[in-house]
């Protein structure tokens, strides 16, 4: 007769077998699941087309294919960058802001560009026929001194309208600016798609595309210099996934429009028009030009003080080059 201790051992083995049986039948270990996927937190500033490569990469499963389990968190640019420094955020999509922080001495770096030309359009009242008609008029921006304001001034200057010839008014977010434009409180503003499409439906005019005038990488990926040293393979994996999302968007219009409809809650016509307006803003291969990086540094020069900063001080495209090589585009 079996002793009580032997009976207990047999029961334990039986219970273990019963617990493991479903896993064995399904062909995986009970502790596997997502155990091999590295969880990373990626902060993004807004759910818009500037960040579409990130969302496309998630929708297509490109992160999972490189062993990454991303948690996408919407945060303001400054909060996201502060999160990088505190360790609560692993990556942030505020590429240009990260470059400016790096120029001031923060231990962060840009590692990939998603949008290398600003996806903004100059929208005006119906009585404004050309940009020079804006002399003496009010132009609405999000906040005076913000990137939207800077890009708007560069657009006006390109058409010969000086900063003293218009009144720049910081009036807040896009819905407020569009309402002010319709009411006549302002005569112009700049906005990303789908605003230009909606503007035409309202009888407003669209006069110019900022990307034809300004080379300025706005959205991309940034991380800390510490992570670049201690977890470089992870950085390469994250960059690879987002780069695949970027290339997918550039090369697969109809499927990209399908995803846009779901993510941004657009109807088919609006999604197709927004895609066509936005695709020319996206980086061809995830990189940003020297001129574009210099433009960002020039904008932040006053904040950097007397620091002598070069592009190599604020970006590290090493992981990007590895991702490009792995995908056969370099």
Describe the structure in your own words:
The strands form two sheets. The protein has a five-stranded mixed β-sheet, with helices on both faces. Mean pLDDT is 88; it is low at 1-5 and 7-34. The chain starts with a helix and ends with a helix. With 330 residues, the protein is an alpha/beta fold. It folds into two domains: 38-117 and 216-327, 3-Layer(aba) Sandwich (D-Maltodextrin-Binding Protein, domain 2); 121-212, D-Maltodextrin-Binding Protein, domain 2. 48% of the residues lie in helices and 15% in strands. The chain has helices at 4-26, 52-59, 62-65, 77-86, 95-103, 147-158, 174-183, 195-201, 225-230, 232-251, 253-264, 268-278, 290-299, 301-304, 311-314, 318-327; strands spanning 38-44, 68-74, 91-94, 108-113, 121-124, 138-141, 167-170, 188-191, 205-209, 219-224. Strand 6 (138-141), helix 6 and strand 7 form a beta-alpha-beta unit.
Briefly say what this structure is.
With 330 residues, this protein is α/β, with parallel strands linked by helices. It has helices at 4-26, 52-59, 62-65, 77-86, 95-103, 147-158, 174-183, 195-201, 225-230, 232-251, 253-264, 268-278, 290-299, 301-304, 311-314, 318-327; strands spanning 38-44, 68-74, 91-94, 108-113, 121-124, 138-141, 167-170, 188-191, 205-209, 219-224.
């Amino acid at each position: 007769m079996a002793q009580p201790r032997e009976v207990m051992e047999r029961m334990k083995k039986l219970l273990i077998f019963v617990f493991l049986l479903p896993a064995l039948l399904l062909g995986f270990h009970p502790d596997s699941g997502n155990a091999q996927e590295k969880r990373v937190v990626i902060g993004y500033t807004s759910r818009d087309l500037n960040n579409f490569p990130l969302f496309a990469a998630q929708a297509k499963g490109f992160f999972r294919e490189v062993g990454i389990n991303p948690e996408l968190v919407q945060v303001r640019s400054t909060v996201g960058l502060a999160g990088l420094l505190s360790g609560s955020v692993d990556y942030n999509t505020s590429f240009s802001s990260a470059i400016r922080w790096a120029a001031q001495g923060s231990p962060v770096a840009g590692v990939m560009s998603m949008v290398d030309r600003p996806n903004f359009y100059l929208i005006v009242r119906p009585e404004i026929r050309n940009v020079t008609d804006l002399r003496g008029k009010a132009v609405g921006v999000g906040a005076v001194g913000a990137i939207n304001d800077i890009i708007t001034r560069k657009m006006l200057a390109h058409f010969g309208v000086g900063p003293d010839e218009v009144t720049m008014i910081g009036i807040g977010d896009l819905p407020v600016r569009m309402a002010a434009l319709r009411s006549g409180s302002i005569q112009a503003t700049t906005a990303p798609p789908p605003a230009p499409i909606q503007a035409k439906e309202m009888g407003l005019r669209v006069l110019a595309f900022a990307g034809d005038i300004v080379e300025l990488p706005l959205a991309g990926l940034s991380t800390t210099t510490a992570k670049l040293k201690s977890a470089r393979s992870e950085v390469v994996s994250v960059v690879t996934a987002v780069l695949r999302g970027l290339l997918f968007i550039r090369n697969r219009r109809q499927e990209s429009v399908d995803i846009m409809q779901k993510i941004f809650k657009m109807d088919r016509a609006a999604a197709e028009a927004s895609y066509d307006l936005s695709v020319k803003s996206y980086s061809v291969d995830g990189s940003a030009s020297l001129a574009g990086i210099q433009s960002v540094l020039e904008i932040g020069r006053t904040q950097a003080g007397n620091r002598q900063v070069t592009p190599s001080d604020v970006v590290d495209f090493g992981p990007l080059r590895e991702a490009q090589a792995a995908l056969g585009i370099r």
